[in-house]
Amino acid sequence: MTSPRVQQLIDGMTWAEKLGQLQIVFRPRPEDAAALVRAGIGSTFWPRSAAATNALQREAVEHTRLGIPLLIGLDVIHGQRTIAPVPLAMAATFDAPLVEDLARLAATEARSGGVTWTFSPMIDVSRDPRWGRVVEGFGEDVHVNAVLGAAMVRGYQGTDLAAADSIAATAKHFVAYGQPEGGRDYNAVDVSTHRLRNVYLEPFRAAVDAGAAAVMASFNTVSGIPMHANRHLLTDVLKSEWGFGGIVVGDADGVRNLLPHGVAEDMVQAVRMAYEAGLDVEMGGAPSDVAAALTPDVLDGARIDDAVARVLALKESLGLFENPYVDEDAELVAPTAAARELVRGAAARAAVLLKNDGTLPLSAPARVLLTGPYADSTDHLGAWTQSFAAPSGSIAGELSARWPATEVQVVPGVSFLGDGSDDIAAAVAAARIVDAIVICVGEPSALSGEAASRSDLRLPGRQADLIRAIAGCGIPFVVVLANGRPLVVADWIDEAPAVLEVWHGGTEAPAAIVDVLTGERDPAGRLPMSFPRSVGQVPVYYAHENTGRPATTGGALELEHADVGLHGPDNVQDKYTSKYLDAELGPEFDFGHGSGYATFTHGEPRLTVAELKLERVHAGEAVTLSLDVTNTSGRRGDEVIQLFIEDLVASVAPPVRRLVAFERRTFEPGARAVIEFSVGQEQLGFWVTDGVGASFRVERGTFHLHIGGALKHTQFVELRVI
Ligand code: NOJ
Question: Is the pTM of this model over 0.90?
Fold first, then answer.
């Protein structure tokens, strides 16, 4: 519903003024900014201070005919000044309220400087760790992306966009950007409507339900149609079917990219295609000669009015017409103590204990060696932070401060990427005379993020050589892995007694890492993406469809079975199943994997009823599944209970399992609690597509509800829908 103010403005706008509202320009050079605003641009990237933002708003409000304030956009991805763990690490916390708080903190800092619009959260389901952008999202699972995406939208936007600590969120990238062929960024996506509906669209549906102010079109094609020109998905699905009333914003130069995509001859055609498809705001800014050619004969007037109405409605919700300025004296330019504590706790909660033979937690030894390129590196912020972000310290600095009586030696031994300075022998010599070793390895931030795909997922440089060399010393050691994507760790993992995945944890990462190493905080994160055994196995993810020939064993590279002529029923059992001859089945570490220092037992799962009538499910009836969980250790710790559904027979091949609920709960030593999940239509149903449309459906049949602390440690109860 267009408000009277917005309608009145539109009625009085010239064609050029309307088009001006439909562009967001990248951060202009300061000397050009005022002129651009006076010329009528509707939105721009943040000019990097409250004062500069106010100056631009003043140009818009006082020196344009209609005085329409600007939207000020910025990629606030995991913090503005105080940097939280990267989104993939946020996902590892399995803690939606925490993720909401982190988004709230980011919004508070950003809005205090005049930012009103962030291009976050990224909710691209990502199952290919070669793709560097997996770091920016919540991993491979549909439900995790949906729940955490909605949490971030709520965190950014609060209950009132006009509040001094709220900013507009953008769910991105719409859609299926997480499935580029070969894991190469920007590459083509060819995806069935079945998978689109059940996997890639679902998190966006949740974000729209949560009230996301904007949705960003993605760079990729979907089945041959670039998303910036995809009318079916942008308009028919997003706007018409889902009733999305916000802004569809293009990605950076995404409209211009329709030319190399090979679907538009020139920019005029590209712009026309994009607006016809349902785009509302073009990011980048069409050059003036193009703008001049975009006459009312070229672009549909009603469509343009609709787009302008959406932009003005957002400006109105943000309260910009009443108050376009921010209080320059109240700009938050450095983390507060509370902000630091929040991101430190989050970084500790994101840490995933991949394996531990009891070496962790460490108690202060007399002498400790810190080795590996992350030992004294301060590269903990991760992809997508700006130059004004609050920096982190190093693990070496933090550990030395925490253990004043310990002699802390720092010998990196190798560089990140392997250069002439590598000296593994020096690290080994130092290792021989200490009591404990912490090997700090990983990927620097620049190796993940946009345009950072990799074809090799092993630790770069000679880091694995360093781990193996240290393993040969016979001194207890732990490996700390800091990275922005799942890695292939097969070449060293068996030699390491304990491995802690810490991701890129942000401003307080080193403090959090030391908290976990020393046992001051418990690691209880879980993997939001499977860690493959090798690149050749990618994509490998838990919620895959079954094949007609599921394998039970893999890795048997035996020549006698290579006789493909023997395709009889006996051989189907072993040879003719879906697997790699040279790899064990499944990933190195599953989605949801991770342990902690505390230990837990689970009772038998219980269902309130074992049978539901389909009609009652449609009417909203649900069953409750409960599980007794007990902390059997003498430590306080967290358990992450995960509930997966297995639909035994459906009209469309179902995924072998599908996460439908999770909860992270803290238990005091010896404490017991009952965890309950409700299972009804939303959990049991899936999208059925035909050539025309899609409907969400629950089918009669048997379901196994698998519940536990990790995929491989679940118990199930049976539920029948009759
Ligand atoms: C390109 C990226 O794909 C997108 O995620 C980002 O928001 C824009 N650039 C703006 O910086």
Answer: yes
